[in-house]
Amino acid sequence: MTVPPRPGRPRVEIRDERPGEEEAIGTLIGAAFAGAAHSGGNEAAIVAALRRGGSLAVSLVAVEDGAIVGHVAFSPVRVGGRSGGWFGLGPVAVEPGRQLRGIGAALIEAGLARLRTRGAKGCVVLGEPVYYGRFGFAADPAFRLEGVPVDYFLRLAFEAAPHGGKVEYDPAFGVG
């Protein structure tokens, strides 16, 4: 997938992460979240732990002029005590100098499309309702993440009747 360029800017290719890109992805994630108010400072460690544990279900990068400038991760989650079919989006990171150009949105759209083609039931995300709402995510009190206000924990169902319940992320998200 290629993101249409804005005038005077090159195209951005969206593709799967490749072996040997782990360090570049970690550096990018660290830079993207440096100083962010909502950051735990462990986002790169989360992605590395998901990768090591085999739970990095979708890992896409955005490449511009041969450099990785964005990354998005999707990993399986348990919903209502059940495994299978639901995924968590995040983290999503874009190099600070390239933010607000649609790269993050392109990564999210490509990742959601990948989940759909794999027969996923849906996806959840902890994030800004207005931003993620444009992808179809919405708050649903039936989907709960402990300690998180319902308005900021969002779900996107790919099937008609989601079952809901308490959502549990991979243990990698406890990495500090």
Q: What do you see in this structure?
A:
By secondary structure, this protein is α+β, with helices and mostly antiparallel strands. The chain has a single domain (2-174), classed as Aminopeptidase, CATH 3.40.630.30. The protein has helices at residues 22-33, 43-52, 103-117, 129-133, and strands at 2-3, 12-16, 58-64, 67-76, 78-79, 86-94, 122-126, 138-139, 143-144, 153-157, 165-168. The strands form two sheets. An eight-stranded mixed sheet has the order 1-2-3-4-6-7-10-8, sandwiched between helices. The protein has a three-stranded mixed sheet with strand order 5-11-9, with no helix packed on it. Strand 3 and strand 4 (67-76) form a beta hairpin. Helix 1 (22-33) packs antiparallel against helix 2 (43-52). It is globular, with a radius of gyration of 16 Å.
Which CATH C-level class is it? Alpha Beta
Instruction: Please tell me the total number of domains.
Output: 1
Proper CATH architecture:
3-Layer(aba) Sandwich
Instruction: Give the biggest beta sheet.
Output: 8 strands, mixed
Percent range for helical residues? 10-25%
CATH superfamily, by name, is Gcn5-related N-acetyltransferase (GNAT)
Return the average pLDDT rounded to an integer. 90
**What fraction of residues sit in β-strands?**
25-35%
Number of helices in the DSSP assignment: 4
Which stretches of 5+ consecutive residues score pLDDT under 50? none
Number of strands: 11
- Estimated structural class: alpha+beta
Task: Kindly report the spatial arrangement of strands forming the biggest sheet.
Answer: 1-2-3-4-6-7-10-8
Q: What form results from the Cα inertia axes?
A: globular
- Cα-to-Cα separation, first versus last residue: 33 Å
- Rg calc: 16 Å
